[in-house]
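Hey, I was hoping to borrow your eyes for a little while. I'm sending you its amino acid sequence along with the backbone structure tokens. Take your time with it, there's no hurry, and the full record follows here.
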Amino acid sequence: MKTKRKRGIYEVMTAKSKSWKNSRSLLTNEHYDMMSPSIATYVNIDAPPSMLPAKKYCDITGLPAKYMDPVTKIRFVSKEAFRKARDLPDHKVEEFLALRQAQIRIK
């Protein structure tokens, strides 16, 4: 690196700074649309389903949940969410369960 004196202050002279490209410009520069579909590229590779278990979230707050109410089957994360789940009427509980496509019906 070279230094250059400018107005009493030494500045480090560096090479030309790198210019970064966004993903859209990279994809258009690679001309993936002109390639054969049989060639594996970043655009046409299908990913297999995940081997990790699905994450479970609190039905009340939306935070990652560790617990599930055995009566209403609603997932919760804290004491306050548990109280709220227990205070909900049956039709609201069924709406929460329908949102996450649970097949449990409250009797």
Remarks:
- The beta strands are 2-6, 9-13, 67-68, 75-76.
- The mean pLDDT is 78.
